Description:
single chain, 8 helices, elongated
Amino acid sequence: MPASKKIAVSAAELPVPSITPEQWEQVFTLVEEGQTLRQISTQPDMPTWVLMRQTLRASPALASRYGRARMLAAEAFEDRLLQEVHSIGGDDTAAMRLRIDTLKWIMSKRAPARYGEKTGTESQAAPPAQEQGRPRTIRRVIVDPAPLVEKEK
């Protein structure tokens, strides 16, 4: 067999793969259902994980849509959590507790404003002086007693 010649091709000559709007709609729907980009990329007829990430970085509009889909995914996790709670049986309570705690942790990370733990500082009231709009100042003045002693003499 004759050896085949290798032809050098520059990166500029290679076709740039693109993601169709229909594929993006599928991706956003699956993200809203709680799937990750890596999970989606393993499905047939889906773009690669790297290509999706590159495209999201390059397009603010797609990145914004992806962010909204991630927020909606928190609701999917909430629904799943409720289903798990309702299906707890007497024998597998420890396993279910682990599953529920895991889902709650994921939800708190994906939507911290809605599901994150509240800190104690959020409920503390501001000091009265700050409520009135003026800062509270404590001033310390050190007085040399020597001139006062000389005046008394």
